[in-house]
């Protein structure tokens, strides 16, 4: 796999500095590449302190999501835009929109439909990202089915 991910370390501009934060930017896409994006995640996906969420609820199980939660501003589109995704919500709450490519069907993101509830956060399906070893991530099982 070729990857253009880079490791960056934020340099404190003023003393006293907090512990340096390491982040990594991953490139991702849907299968047909209509959508291409980069996602900056801190800590890096394979860092022992990073947890990737695997949920057993009806939609996550079907889509095979492995999710991280990042700010909208940490997702940058190279091709396509957020508005061009097909969005799926379901009863009774329609609380979460599931973003998939209308061409190839890849499930890339999920996002709250309520701007007041984590409105600036995207759940990113790390299965759509490149540049890391999926087997090296720490997966946290979440029992969404019981919620
Ligand atoms: Zn696609």
TrEMBL record:
Residues 26-147 form the CENP-V/GFA domain. InterPro entries: CENP-V-like, CENP-V/GFA, Mss4-like_sf. GO terms for molecular function: carbon-sulfur lyase activity; metal ion binding. Transmembrane segments: none annotated. Residues 1-23 have a biased composition (Low complexity). Belongs to the Gfa family. PANTHER family: CENP-V_GFA DOMAIN-CONTAINING PROTEIN, CENTROMERE PROTEIN V. This is CENP-V/GFA domain-containing protein. It comes from Lophiostoma macrostomum CBS 122681. The lineage of its organism: Eukaryota, Fungi, Dikarya, Ascomycota, Pezizomycotina.
């Amino acid at each position: 796999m070729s990857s253009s991910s880079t490791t960056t370390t934020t340099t404190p501009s003023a003393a006293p500095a907090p512990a340096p934060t390491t982040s990594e930017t991953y490139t991702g896409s849907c299968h047909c590449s209509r959508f291409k994006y980069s996602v900056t995640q801190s800590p890096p996906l394979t860092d022992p302190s990073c947890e990737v969420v695997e949920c057993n609820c009806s939609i996550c199980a079907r889509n095979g999501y492995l999710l991280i939660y990042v700010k909208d501003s940490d997702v940058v589109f190279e091709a396509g835009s957020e508005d061009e995704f097909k969005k799926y919500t379901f009863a009774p709450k329609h609380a979460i929109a599931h973003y998939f490519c209308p061409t190839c069907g890849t499930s890339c993101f999920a996002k709250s439909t309520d701007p007041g509830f984590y409105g600036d956060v995207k759940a990113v399906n790390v299965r759509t990202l490149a540049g890391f070893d999926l087997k090296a991530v720490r997966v946290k099982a979440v029992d969404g089915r019981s919620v």
